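Input/output pair, single chain:
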Amino acid sequence: MKKIEVFRAWGNILAGLPPSLSIEITKECPLQCPGCYAFDPAHLGGSTQLRQLSDFKGDELVRKVLAVIDEYRPLHVSLVGGDPLVRYRELELLLPQIESRGVHTQVVTSAFRVVPSTWKMFPKLNVVVSIDGLQPEHDERRKPATYERILKNIAGAKVTVHCTVTSQIAERPGYLDEFLGFWSTRPEVAKVWFSLFTPQKGATDPEILSREQRLVVMNELRRLRPLFPKLDMHDIVIDEIANPPSNPEECIFARTTETISADLRTKITPCQFGGVPDCSQCGCIASMGLAAVGHYKVVGNLTAGDLFMASDRFGKRLRKLRDSFSGRPAVHPEAAPFKIL
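Output:
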């Protein structure tokens, strides 16, 4: 991250604004993947579910998403869902507008639809394609977004492959070697990321890893990193998996990212998983990455995390005080109109 972007992020924190946004731009998805956190009954707190929310399309969606971005002025925004490519026409208008604002954008998709090769023109864009393991398991879990379809739809594009490691994957020796051997050789793949499945508290999903399996995966990732240069996970990030933040208040990712659902008003808390995530079993690569940054010692025993926590508390108190006097809504619903062709 460039120094100017660090100062921008810090400025947001001091102003009580999140440096990062995650926006569920649609509730629609053609897949029904087991273990998907977005459609978990607990995702929105249990009172309602994602598919029950109203969402938007066309000019209205473009307008409202840009209004949210202009309200928060983030350094980074993730466009998720559902699957954002359900709204591919709107994305064609949103991406250049977000890029022009100097905001880094991440589009997280199953690649069930073509990822346009023209998106490579946006230097601040990262398209993340979710892959659930090797072809037999992935195709079963993620049809119609099968390996064959993904390979066709990313041809000529530039993407990051992200795989969430489950108990079923962790128990098979050599699985990650084979996965990296396949995807890291693809010219379209710039990077490969791994997360570990993060459950809700009290959940009994078969995907949940045991503590022993988590340690095995950590050792495997350390071994594989020098063998596969596209595996974009440093040892200090991998190390955080052993001791994730104990609760959302101690998680820098949870505290720096505002997550907004498909109606563009409902906030998902305490982090992108919603509900009551079991932080003791968190394996989110974003959380682990920022936890590693937080442990960086700035001066003596003073860490970057210490500076962040102090700045974050100050900024949020200031914003709460400011908003109580202004009486303005958290998100403004209007922005300049655009036309969907």
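The longest strand covers residues 189-196. Residues 330-341 have pLDDT under 50 and may be disordered.
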